[in-house]
Specification:
alpha+beta, TBP-like, nine-stranded mixed beta sheet, 2 helices, 9 strands, 18% helix, 34% strand, elongated
């Protein structure tokens, strides 16, 4: 489910779910509210994985089209947010905790790399096939205000028969 894109994970187009020519992987039938709730739960779990005190940004999940599929019937949920540890040096501790926690409990760390940006940010990409989500985490330790960018993205879902996608 993961790719090695270096797009800013706080953008609505960035994300870790691999997009093939046919689009993101198919996950089944569910309402948008069910998948939004599931993605929020995963984001809370990721927040707990940091293991250091800090603040998460406020914007909530959104709904986007699935590439190559009927936008009235198929969708993905994405949840980009930033985590700002109380102490900037806790960024490294949080990233080490993410790297450790994203290798168990259904999570598979698919990639860990330094990007090509001038700041040489550490990127982590992980999938949880049982939860049908991917997460892309980027450490911004060299920014004026150190933070961590996190984007949780679901696989592609189909709305139940007779319903259309509820875009947030």
């Amino acid at each position: 489910m993961a790719d090695n894109d270096t797009t800013d994970p706080s953008s609505t187009d960035g994300g870790a779910v691999k997009e093939t020519a046919a689009g993101p992987p198919y996950a089944g039938i569910a309402t948008t509210s069910e998948v939004v709730a599931a993605v929020k739960n995963v984001s809370s779990q990721i927040h707990d994985f940091a293991g250091v005190p800090g603040k998460a940004s406020e914007p909530g999940p959104g709904v986007s089209d699935c590439q190559g599929r009927d936008p009235e019937r198929y969708y993905q949920v994405y949840h980009p947010w930033n985590f700002s540890p109380r102490v900037g040096t806790d960024n490294e501790i949080a990233m080490a905790n993410f790297k450790k926690r994203l290798t168990g409990g259904g999570w598979v760390l698919k990639d860990s790399y330094i990007d090509n940006s001038p700041n040489k940010n550490l990127n982590l990409v992980a999938d949880n096939d049982s939860k049908k989500v991917s997460v892309w985490i980027v450490e911004y330790s060299r920014n004026t205000v150190p933070s961590i960018g996190i984007n949780v993205r679901s696989a592609c879902y189909q709305v139940p028969e007779g319903q259309t996608v509820d875009h947030y």
